[in-house]
Amino acid sequence: MSHMSQARDAAARAEWLRAQLQHHAWRYYVLDAPEIPDAEYDRLFQELQALEAAHPELRTADSPTQRVLGSVLEGLAPVRHVVPMLSIQTETDTSAAGARAFDARVRRELALADDAPPLQYMAELKFDGLAINLRYEAGVLVQAATRGDGETGEDVTHNIRTIGQIPLRLRGKAPPVLEIRGEVYIRRADFERLNAHQREHGGKTFVNPRNTAAGAVRQLDPAVTASRPLSFYAYGVGEVRGWHEPPTQSALLDAIAEFGVPASAERRIVHGAAGLVRFHDDIEARRDALPFDIDGVVYKVDALELQRRLGFKTREPRWAVAHKFAAQEQATRLNGIELQVGRTGKLTPVAKLEPVFVGGTTVSNATLHNLFELRRKGVRIGDEVIVRRAGDVIPEVVGRMPGARRYYVPNFHMPHACPVCGSRVVREKGSVEHRCSGGLFCAAQRKQALLHFAGRRAMDIEGLGDKLVEQLVDAGLVHTLPDLYRLGVAELAALERMGDKSAANLVAALERSKDATLARFLYALGIRHVGEATARDLAQHFGTLERVMAAAPDELCQVSDVGSVVAQSIRTFFEQPHHREVVAALRSAGIHWPEHEGAAGAARSATPRPLAGRTLVLTGTLAHLTRDEARALIEAAGAKVAASVSKKTDYVIAGSEAGSKLARAHELGVPVLDEDALHALLAAGTTPS
Ligand code: IVH
After folding, report:
1. Above 70 in pLDDT, residue 602?
2. For residues 248 and 235, what is the distance between their CA atoms, to the nearest angstrom?
3. pTM of the model as a whole
4. Annotated catalytic, 126?
5. Which is catalytic among the residues 126, 300, 447, 640?
6. Which of 248, 340, 621, 629 is the most buried (most CB within 10 A)?
7. pLDDT tens digit string along 42-65?
8. 324 in contact with ligand 1, CB cutoff 6 A
């Protein structure tokens, strides 16, 4: 082979390797869905490295081998931004009024009539990291700069190149100049891992993800940056040349994602103030479940044409606003500690607090979880404590404010007897939970059991809330679950705050609840570890109550998600004569459900299950069905409804204002159906073509 043709082959091979590595880096870092094993990626990488070492002229700036260049800089060079990097105005009113004020302001500035249709907005997350401008020329990353004062930032190209999520070359056909702007941040789990690593190696630990990300980007030695687990999300563009820009912010983000740059799937097109408020509430409720910290949400007028009309006010655009969430932590006084007895007897120490406004509501009780948590936090009555209420999570005491106590306060002790029924308090070996051993003898456990039984997803007894349960148990009218069905109107009407009408309503609700399903009934019994999903699986697997009650542990373990602990708990429950009596009494009170044979039975074929074995995901708002209705229909057809989209998802059913799940479905190529197609699917098991 001649030298020339060898060189040609090497060049072609290098180009092919670069393209492969770029593709797989995108799958791995951006989509989080690798197609090849890590070892195979490494093999390709090493081949390219060797090839470039033998032919240095083949090395290109966008080669994946060029991420860490090794030289330490003396300082960061200034970079003047062609398009200034602006900041965002912050709305200080964290309530819904904050979103309404922004919408009203935009409408006023656009001189829209009161009856003009709602404006379309792009709602995004406000990432908490460091703003970066990525400059791509002909698709190749040529420069990365911090925001600085907005006019002039710092050149951090050497560091940004170390971030795997940031492509060195854009995918597809890239314009001559495209600056992509976004935030470098650190995911919570990555941050925890980093600190764990630091602790193990005797290094200093970092205070929070934000400062760590900012510090890492501004390093002089790229090797230091490379050792920090940085992530990136794009939210806009800077200078653009030779590109037909999409007409909306939402389409712009879609295009950026197409170029292979990460854009968060937690973005949604919404309409009017109501849409903004819904997004704000939704994200606030899920805030702690997101894999990274956020600083609020950002609303942007979606149409770029309207953005241009609205323009800027000194350094902030009029078309965007950052909307924060109610503070999740506040300090207040711990007035006392009480014990709450749960349905299964668990004793939870509850902090009685000086009422304080936190996370959007007034909180006067907060959980201390268990004795060990309480001790760890070192809180005592009279202390100033920090209370946290995040989203829908139960308020908790995080710890005490610094400062010495002026008086001696005794530590809290677990009593030996249940504060409600006097039964012995026990703690299983290795468990942090103290329990009342009284079972249904304990009025507190009885009350909780009744409330659970009456719950919407259990027997759904309308009107049987905690006040009434309290009264019924305290008045001695109800000892066990079947007692509920012996209640008469006269008896009930004699209770305080109970009129004839409410009494009659309750009796009617009790009557209605008798028309049940096996799954609901199993769930309503309150068997430890048997949640709604397990109850449904049990009902479907065994078909009849008798079979569930008679099943041996190994038979129970054949039900999906039932392991030995759950199986044992079911066995223990049904082995107790008391529970068998309760079940029998409930059935003779008239509780019934449609009987059908289980998976083993032949009668099963009588019910068509067109979607057996499939997994569907629901997202957004359907026009004619509630979530629960859609779920019931899908499950009746034999399919599972999953909470998140994965490669195993067969269909995503999307309604209006569908968000991240829809984006994820598109990413993974999962078919997306609307409500009509869902009905077709339910009927036939296939989609109309
Ligand atoms: S847009 C035209 N979108 O917030 C406004 N910024 O206070 C330009 N940030 O420097 C920024 N998430 O670092 C925008 N979804 C988002 C954002 C976001 C976080 C940061 C960004 C910016 C600062 C503005």
Report:
1. no
2. 12
3. 0.61
4. yes
5. 126
6. 248
7. 889 999 999 999 999 998 888 888
8. no
